[in-house]
């Protein structure tokens, strides 16, 4: 029986190259060309979660204008799950799973663009890290803004354990996710951060809504 091929530290770059060679990436991104769209460009990174759809609908309700053209981008996630010692077969399975999810994300958001009559496109992009891929796309698109969603476990203002990071990182990390924070630190374009309510806030809001509805019913009965 031959030796089982495994991934070592230096092999990750080769794995990334192999993934990039087989995964569909829009030519306009891969070749580094600027977009030919007319109008103001908006970049919106999305992932496989409800936060991204929340961000899309919030943007649609509060920001979108007819002359805005939306560039929804997705960085297929698989690198974070690769561990030293994994077989190449296991890594390829991770890549296939990432590709399936990426294709579904593209389908979902293309439908949202069509249903809401928004001019735009859904791009699958790749880079050394999620945040760097987003920043590089922004350099190509030159957006008037970057719209990103974030979600925290606790409401703003809740005391947290102090850390040794700089004040900027410490304060921003309390309100935004790590990827959003890194894009904020490295991008030169204006950013709109859409914070999805945490579970505690959602429960409180639902309770307030129920109380208001009950009060209106009682008042109407009188």
UniProtKB/TrEMBL annotation:
InterPro entries: Rossmann-like_a/b/a_fold, UspA. Signal peptide: none annotated. This is UspA domain-containing protein. It comes from the Eukaryota. Residues 42-195 form the UspA domain.
